[in-house]
Structures are given as structure tokens and as C-alpha cells.
Amino acid sequence: MTRNRYLLHAGLFVVTLLSTALTGAILFIGRSEAWAAGGAIFDLGGLPVTTTFLADAFVFGGALIAFLTVHEFGHYIAARVHKVKTSLPYFIPAPLIGIGTLGAVISIRQPISNRIKLFDIGASGPLAGFVMVLILLSWAMVTLPSAEYMFGVGGHDSLLEFIQTTGRFPDTPISDAPPGSRLTLGATPLYWALSQAFPNVPPLYEMYHYPLLFAAWLGLFFTALNLMPVGQLDGGHIVYALFGPRWHARISRAFVFLMLSSMTVGGALTLPSMLVGIAGNDFWARIVTWFVLGALLALCTRRAFGEQWWQITIIILVLASFAAAVPPALDWFGYFGWFPWCLLLVFVIKVDHPPVPVSLPLTPKRRLIGYLTLAIFVLSFSIKPLYSV
Question: 9 vs 4, 18, 86, 98, 177, CA distance in Å?
């Protein structure tokens, strides 16, 4: 690798770290009173930059970058062990957008010749990343401050009144945010289990005020995304190596069906109220909703399911119709936020996996590790990872 390439990788790493740190500072800008109390080091556009400011920023950014680094180097080291040519990780900064990064990737520069290599390279990243997530999540839970921490955030008058009275977080949501604007993070099985074992765990609609805890949750989220058993995602590699091309095709399509169903049900439940202002009234908003959902479904199912696309489209639309008729029944399942991810799965990542020339059988140890990674996916996955209430 040339010196210029090393500089590129190092430069992207540094810029992404700064980007996530800046985004972290903006996410926790409600703690500006706590920052100011520490005495400003310098002024940034009217915002006092203090040691507390920098701690919040770099705890979030550093934890998130640590997870991405460990995950990608898991892939990199496994590839080098098998003498498969690959690049160092390319970190992708996204300043002021989302969480400050679009993740990181490595580039595999030659075909992977057999299933053992495919499995080792595919599984090593999520396994290494999950170990890092467990460390971050455990550290965040062990070091959680008392509920009075929220007094340094600002706002949240009703919640703060409850905390002042009881000294704890409420069992049911309390928020001063307008209806439909309170962002809530989804509980994964692992996160829920750990939250039962530690005190002072904040409610999911306030978790993003906690830099380390939020970064650890994002690690779970990215682990689940990578382990989806579709195409050439890490989970797709693992399923292909474990079960072969025929079962990979079935499992991949079943999962895409699940994602499209969740997207459509979520659209049927949320789009009409969003489109009322544009369509003029509720009747036309519903007409537009079903036209949009039908068109999106047809677009995706034609690519993913071939000749069976219209049967799959009808089944999903019937399911969404039931959800719209009896709203509470499938509210837990419907999530229109999967829309861009469905497009990515179907048109970019692709549903099928390219053939691997040599079908070497996996050793019993590798098969056990493969089942473990599938369990990690279940523990890390949330059907509604980020939504408003």
C-alpha cells in the first residue's frame, strides 16, 4: 500500500472522529448550562467550549468510532489471515448529518474462493464489533449517573418535576414535547435485559442525552443492520456459508418480505395523517397513501421476487389493510422508516449472493460460531429502532 493510501485512511479516520464528536456535541447541546458551569476554554459561535463540552463530544464520538474500528478490523484481520487482498477501513464522515458518520467499509480486492474464507471474513467483523458493544454497553450501564443528571440537560419540566419528587425515572412516558415529536429509540432484547439489571437506566425517549449509552445503542443498531441475512451483508455471507445458496435465497427473501411488510404497515398507519395537509382532506390522503405504498411495493417486489412479485404485493397490502382497519393490532410491527433500507437491500446490496466456487464444509466450531452470530442478530435487532411518539 502506498504512503498516500495510508494518509487517506488516517485522514478519513481523523475527520470522521471529529465529525462524530461535533455531532455528539450538538446532540447534547441541552447540557450547555452544565458546560458553562465548568468555565469556557474558548467560545464557538456563542457556545462555551468547556472540558464538559469536550468530554460529551468525544465520549460519544470516540465510543462510536471505537466500535466501527473494531468491527472493520475484524473483517480486515480475517481477510489477511486467509491471504485475501483487502484495503484498510475507509471511514465515512458525514458532518452535521445524523450521527456524524455513515459508518466504515473495507474493500475486498479479489474473489473469495471458498465458504470457509467467506464465513471467517463475514463473521469476524460482527463478532469483534459485538464484543466492543458489550464493553461499551456494560461500561455505560455501570457508570450511569442518578436520575438527577437530567437537571443538567434543561427543559423537560414535567419529567424533572417527577424526578425531583421521586428520585427516579417514571414507569410510563412523561414528556413536554408536542404530540408526534418525541423521538424514542427501540429496545433490543439485549438492551432490555441489561436495563433490568442496573439502576438509573433512562427511558428510551431520553437515552440520547447520555453520550456513552447512546453510542453503545448505535453499536447494537449497526450490528443488527450488518447481520441482516440478505445478499452480501455480513449476515448474508454467514447464512450462505452455513446453509448454502438455496437456503440463502429463501431466508434472504423471507427477511426482505418481513422488511417490506413492516414498511407498508407503518406507511398505512402513519402516512395518511402526514399527507392530510398536502392532499386537502383525509379521504384523498388515504388514496394517495395506498397509491404510494402500492407503487413502492411493486417497485421492490418485482426486483426481489421475480414472477411472484404480484402475489407478494397483494399479501403485504392485505396485511397493511388489516393494520389500517384495526390500528393497535400491528402498531408494534409497522415502521415506515425501513423504506430507504428496503430500497438499499433490493437495489444496491441485492437479495441474492454471488456463487462461491468451492463449497468446503464448515467445521463444527465454525457452525457453532455461525449460530452464535445469528443469535447476536436477534439480541441486537429492533423492529422499530427510531420513531416518534
Answer: 9, 14, 13, 22, 41
CA dihedral 311, 317, 319, 325 (to 10 degrees): -150
Q: What rounded mean pLDDT belongs to the chain?
A: 89
Per-residue pLDDT tens over the stretch 44-70: 555 666 677 777 788 999 999 999 999
CB 145 within 8 A of CB 31: no
Q: HSE (CB half, 13 Å, CA atoms) of 184?
A: 19
User: Would you state the pLDDT for residue 38?
Assistant: 54
- 281 by Cβ neighbours in 10 Å (0-12 / 13-18 / 19+) ranks as exposed
Residue at grid coordinates 464493553: 135
Q: Nearest-CA neighbor of 387 among 99, 102, 180, 103?
A: 180
Element (H, E) at 256: helix 234-279
The whole-angstrom separation of Cα 156 and Cα 165 is 14
* Three-point CA angle 163, 164, 167, nearest 5°: 55
Among residues 387, 265, 249, 241, which one has the least CA distance to residue 326?
265
